[in-house]
Design brief:
40% of the residues lie in helices and 16% in strands. With 711 residues, it is of the alpha/beta class. It has 5 domains: 7-248, Rossmann fold, CATH 3.40.50.970; 253-378, Rossmann fold; 412-585, Thiamin diphosphate (ThDP)-binding fold, Pyr/PP domains (Rossmann fold, 3-Layer(aba) Sandwich); 604-679, 2-Layer Sandwich (Alpha-Beta Plaits); 681-711.
């Protein structure tokens, strides 16, 4: 149950030779895999490639028809380990995950595969989550590629270039016996365009072939003395083979320009932004017809010395566009030029920022500074006047930050409301948070959570705080993190070391933060899914003795479980499993059923909550304790009262949390529930008429009494 279905779009993957595929970059990636004769595909979802995993899922029938094995892996490490099939067999395999956090998880398996080398093409598709929209620490895949000597492709963000990089990535991997990384930024994943298609190919070597004739080469196992041989092999054979392939196949591109005294070197993934900035300066147009020569590196590791030298010779200066830090490419290019006595000046981090995403505005500023110094005649369009840095700083102070928050009706929201209420009894709590939707509780209005260190690592983050004390440390873990890494690293570690803290597993039924994919404990029905695993059963199997189950929407239950966990005399980890279905996925699940009922003119009841304006005191504790986006304020209708009153807007999904919070916190009786009935029957209409009659009579009686007392 992903947040978006590609069931219709994946039919385009059946297009044959000479067809045209119109769609997003992730469709181009999948089509290129099928055209390359891939044998197996694996991966773990995460921005910005979550939808790529969803495409694989929706295309299962097409993959199976071609004999391609697809597996939605339990973690990035499990996905990377799949590449072991390509070590001994000429099987082409591809795996995908979010980088760099996913690469960190996969690093053990990936480093071993890189050391052993591959016989079949091995392609790692990483979603490069770097920049202003990123949800993780700011790091790059480049450092891992250099560390393990894995070749890194960074194609231009257009469908033809992306598809070519997939196909050439397999060939490069086989030519150099080395895994290849293909990094895609979010814009590359979702860029739209046209891809001229080829026929899909069945795998040239299948799993059945491998099982019928198992191959074994002890020199491909990473043990002494072979691991030392692998290092020599990387340098003496694999690297030169990769360089020859990249140069002979012209994977990198040179775009000539009239102004040959300067040039620009740019990784392919940043080319579109660069060209847009060049348009603003006046040295290119929308079709990429630039007046300044450009060397586009669709392969950013390894660099091809001869190509760099050929491009730089005869130029006074070149501008290197390298996003992020450290400046690996700039250092490498300067080293190449110095060792070959080429005096061309390299500008890069001196005109661009050392860190951060290279937006069009930032790139334009650096481009103007570089060209103004080395080729002023190339700048034909003056900068726009108006906003400047001071204006932007003033605007940043006036406009408040809007950190990510929990969705309307989120089942996790009431549990964190309960935690805020329990702090009134025990004081501020030390809470180790986890990656996922629940990490948003670190922001207002909950302000809960002291650290986040990794997926499923909330309990382990509290390990150093497990001394005997009257207050216990808390940690949070989502069900996605539980199955990814938390059961062993979090729960198993807590049991083995007899932690005396409180661990909360938030079970919303899906891998919700990555788009609502299935996990082993998902309860909703899905086709071809036979196994369901209970989180509680898994906890018991891991040796946990103290377990309490609560429903997140019942705040009193959560309060009681938290209070008991904080005060019980029983030693060892205290586990609270807080269950409540992700509201976004619930809406996706029930919306088709509701539409069908309405289409058939059948009765349907929708619950809505509201606030009585006459009763609301304007205290707004409901908003401070809930923070639901459907709760807001509006002007007080009473002219004698100045404080605005709370109100519930139409986005309300009827979860009832606001009323539950008000009840649990003993706030106010202003909340009410209303049932909106679609296609009402005779009984509904009769009841509505009776209620209207009674309320009307009572209201008339009240009005008469008020008139009697009027002065």
């Amino acid at each position: 149950m992903a947040e978006r279905s590609f069931a219709g779009e994946v039919e385009k993957l059946r297009l044959g030779d000479g067809g045209e595929l119109h769609g997003e970059g992730i469709l181009a990636v999948t089509k290129a895999l099928l055209q390359s004769g891939v044998s197996y595909i694996g991966g773990y979802q995460g921005s910005p490639i979550s939808h790529l995993i969803d495409v694989f899922n929706d295309a299962r029938d097409i993959l199976e028809d071609l004999g391609v094995r697809f597996e939605q892996s339990a973690s990035e490490a499990a996905a990377a380990a799949m590449l072991a099939a390509s070590i001994n067999y000429p099987m082409r395999g591809a795996v995908a995950w979010k980088s760099t956090v996913g690469t960190n998880v996969a690093s053990d398996a990936l480093a071993n595969v890189a050391s052993a080398g591959v016989k079949g093409g091995a392609l790692i598709i990483v979603g490069e989550d770097y920049g202003e929209g990123a949800s993780i620490m700011q790091e790059r895949s480049h450092s891992f590629a250099m560390k393990s000597q894995v070749w890194l492709l960074d194609p231009r963000p257009d469908l033809e270039s992306i598809a070519e990089s997939v196909e050439q990535g397999f060939e490069l991997s086989e030519a150099s016996n080395t895994p290849v990384m293909l990094q895609l930024r979010v814009r590359a994943c979702h860029v739209t365009g046209v891809l001229k298609t080829k026929d899909n190919r069945r795998p040239g070597f299948s799993a059945a072939d491998a099982l019928d004739a198992p191959a074994r080469d002890v020199q491909r196992i990473v043990l002494p003395p072979f691991n030392y041989q692998h290092e020599v092999e990387k340098v003496e054979r694999r690297w030169p083979a990769a360089v020859d392939f990249i140069r002979e196949r012209a994977l990198n591109e040179v775009r000539e320009g009239a102004r040959g005294e300067v040039g620009i070197i740019v990784p392919g993934g940043l080319y579109n932004t660069l060209n847009r900035a060049m348009e603003h300066v006046g040295c290119s147009n929308a079709f990429g017809n630039a007046t300044v020569p450009i060397y586009v590196m669709n392969v950013v590791y390894p660099l091809i010395d001869s190509e760099v030298l050929d491009f730089c010779r005869g130029k006074k200066a070149v501008l290197l566009v390298e996003e992020g830090q450290p400046d690996y490419i700039e250092q490498n290019i300067n080293s190449i030029l110095k060792h070959n006595d080429v005096p061309t000046r390299v500008a890069g981090k001196d005109v661009f920022s050392m860190a951060g995403e290279y937006t069009c505005e930032l790139m334009e500023s650096g481009l103007r500074e570089f060209l103004g110094r080395w080729a002023p005649a190339a700048v034909t369009i003056p900068p726009l006047t108006g906003t400047n840095g001071a204006d932007m700083e003033e605007l940043a102070q006036l406009v408040p930050q809007r950190p990510s928050g929990l969705c309307t009706g989120c089942p996790e929201r009431p549990f964190f409301s309960a935690m805020k209420l329990i702090e009134k009894e025990f004081g501020d709590l030390q809470v180790s948070m986890d990656i996922g939707c629940h990490s948003f509780a670190t922001a207002a209005p909950f302000n809960i959570g002291n650290t986040i260190t990794g997926y499923g690592l909330g309990p382990s983050s509290a390990s150093a705080l497990m001394g005997r004390h009257e207050k216990r440390a808390l940690s949070i873990m989502g069900d996605g993190g539980f199955w990814h890494n938390g059961l062993a690293s979090g729960i198993g570690n807590a049991v083995e070391n007899e932690h005396d803290g409180v661990i909360v597993v938030i079970d919303n039924g899906y891998s919700a933060a990555t788009g609502g994919q299935w996990i082993p404990s998902s309860r909703a029905d899905v086709e071809n899914r036979r196994y369901r695993v209970s989180i509680v059963d898994a906890l018991k199997g891991a040796g946990v003795r103290w377990i309490r189950e609560v429903h997140t929407y019942r705040i009193q239950e959560s309060l009681h479980a938290l209070r008991e966990a904080m005060t019980t005399k029983e030693r060892g980890p205290k586990l609270i499993v807080a269950e409540g279905e992700c509201q976004l996925n619930r809406q996706r699940r029930i919306r088709p059923r509701v539409r069908e009922r309405l289409r058939q003119n059948k009765r349907y009841v929708r619950e809505r909550f509201g606030i009585d304006e006459d009763t609301c005191t304007g205290d707004h504790s409901c908003i401070r304790l809930s923070g639901c986006p459907s709760l807001t304020i509006k002007d007080n209708p009473d002219p004698l009262r100045e404080d605005p009153v709370a109100t519930v807007v139409n986005s309300c999904v009827g979860c009832g949390v606001c009323g539950e919070v008000a009840h649990a916190a003993v706030l106010c009786p202003s909340f009410y529930k209303a049932d909106i009935v679609y296609n009402p029957g005779f009984i509904d209409r009769a009841l509505a008429a009776a209620r209207s009659f009674v309320i009307g009579r009572l209201q008339a009686w009240t009005d008469r009494r008020l008139e009697r007392w009027a002065f």
